[in-house]
Amino acid sequence: MARTFFVGGNFKMNGLKESIKAIVEQLNAAELPSNVEVVIAPPALYLDWAQTHLKQATVEIAAQNSFDKNTGAYTGEVAVEQIKDVGAKWVILGHSERRTILNETDEFVASKTKFALDNGLGVILCIGELLEERDAGKTIEVVNRQIDAVVEKVKDWSNIVIAYEPVWAIGTGLAATPEDAQAVHAAIRKHLVEVIGAEQAENTRIIYGGSVNGKNAKSFNGAADIDGFLVGGASLKPEFVDIINARQ
Ligand code: 13P
Predict the structure, then answer these.
(1) Which of 121, 140, 206, 243 suits 169 as a labelling partner, its CA being 20 to 30 A distant?
(2) C-alpha closest to that of 226 among 180, 194, 195
(3) What is the pTM of this model?
């Protein structure tokens, strides 16, 4: 089964009503390929706003985080039920900015992943190594550990998209080379075969994130295990449409 190309736009903590509306309207006006799944992740406050203005059938909305409990006394958290209530279909979990700045552990990310999946959201599960881990030759060890924490809690991976985002490539302008990224993606898929089985491993999308832009996106074409992108900075700009079209 061919894996549908997947392009996510992670707005991070950026945008106000006007600029987010402008990005959505730009997507509405663009001619987007029907064979690419596109998901945009505005800040939680603007999920409803983005969904309200979105007119593109092939674009869906994601939250940037969710909690591992139902609605209740959890000040400042966002419930899966609330995310779904405003029409979003996805949530980004395990982003390195949350793992490193907010100290989220592998176990907490796994717990949130299980809860989101069990309650009907798709999960964009971010994994990736720090520069010092890469320099120490520990890239595969780190991403496997991050994956295994989720495997322990989740057996059905059909609604997970893995985003491999090497931390040293995020926001630095220094994207991984297509060869380096492909090598890690292939290693991730090989590990998935071992832990969730060949069929699920073959069907799971593994997308790349880290300084992807309108210029370099096409260079990843031909990398057999790169099934799309998770885009930060460039998803706020018109070049996001070029990234969506990179595989055409
Ligand atoms: P940049 O594309 O800005 O490097 O960010 C990548 C990212 O973190 C997406 O989640």
Answers:
(1) 121
(2) 180
(3) 0.98
